[in-house]
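Give me the fold.
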Amino acid sequence: MGWLNIYAAVFSEEHTSIFDTSQQYGMQLIWIIATLLIAIVILTIDSRFYVVFANFFYFIVLGVLVFVIFFGVEVNASKSWIQLGGLRIQPAEFAKFATSLALAKYMSSYGFKLGSLKSYIKTSLIVLAPVVLILLQNDAGSAMVFTAFVWVFYSEGMPHWVLAFIGFMITLFLLVLILNKYIILLGLVLLTLILFALISKDYKNAVRFSIGLFGLTAVLYGVSEFFDLSISPYYLILIPIAISIPAVIIYTYLNKARHVLVLLLFFITASTFSFSVNYIFNNVLAIHHRDRINDLLGIETDPLGWGYNVNQSKIAIGSGGLTGKGFLKGTQTKYNFVPEQSTDFIFCTVGEEWGFVGSVVVIGLFLALLLRLIVLAERQKEAFARIYGYGVVSILFFHITVNLAMTIGLFPVIGIPLPFFSYGGSSLWSFTILLFIFLKLDSSRLD
């Protein structure tokens, strides 16, 4: 299906043969044939090979990533490719399966238990090492994929609250860009008080703290207005909080309520993060990342500039209607209105030519694949195969979800392919290696 849609996306009247190797669809066929050979080789090798040489693959890939930083070829402002004659390889794609192997190797080692600070540091370093090297290649999209490994940690026993906290911080980052900072700070105060009431069940003191904080804020506001002191809204909120900290410490000591200190740490962390968001957004993120986030949040729009890709993508998908315009009849893709329509935006061709029905079929097939992989991961007897299996699921889920979301404007464009669908040998081969190693491990499973 991917091959046919690549053919449709870049179809030319001058090159009508789908086997024409001078065109992308012809090259994709060569890569598909090579992929079949790769899959056969993987399945013929003993499964213990992947366990024994997991770290070897990992460090080899890290070495190649370092090599790319100095000697790589730059494509679309990203220096993340190696040129081998007429073939370009993107090592960052292969770092995904290598990191999955290394992570599975370490987390399945004797005596490992996710929960200690040491285990979190080591697992984080395994994931962060390729991320840093890929970021140095100016390829933020590929680096972001590695955040998917948080699901591997979660499946292996990471506490629920850690996942919830990560989700909260991402939400807070977006809210700070949209809402007034003072509203954010007040919201954090209210959230902390609500959590205190729910955890401690001490509703009376929760109400007293609330009355005290907001009462002091009101008094300070009245004093500032009366004496025309022009106190910053930040201080109107922060001064009552600072005054209440001794009361909080006394309450914690008398009631031996350690959770109160945890909540105080949560508030300080979230507040500090909210103050730093604008600095991160304006000084750390590249300008095209800022533009795409602003466009997604509706802060700024530029349908002919940075928002052009997504705007044309939505037009293409929407124009397909229920059943689509038909194979090779998509006008948006045929006349190249959608940039990168054979790679990052390949789903536009599906939406335009096959409509809602075709889109549901494709998404349904991806969903069936993911559910099947989860079932296979769950039935593994060995920890290595189970952890690696969840690594496969996490990476594929991230790619599928983000790629589809960015084509319909629900996620910023970060330039990652749709697995087994988008044009490109590196991504096709890396996903094949990722998947078939797991299939080999599953075929060796002892019932």
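Residues 2-160+300-443 form one domain.
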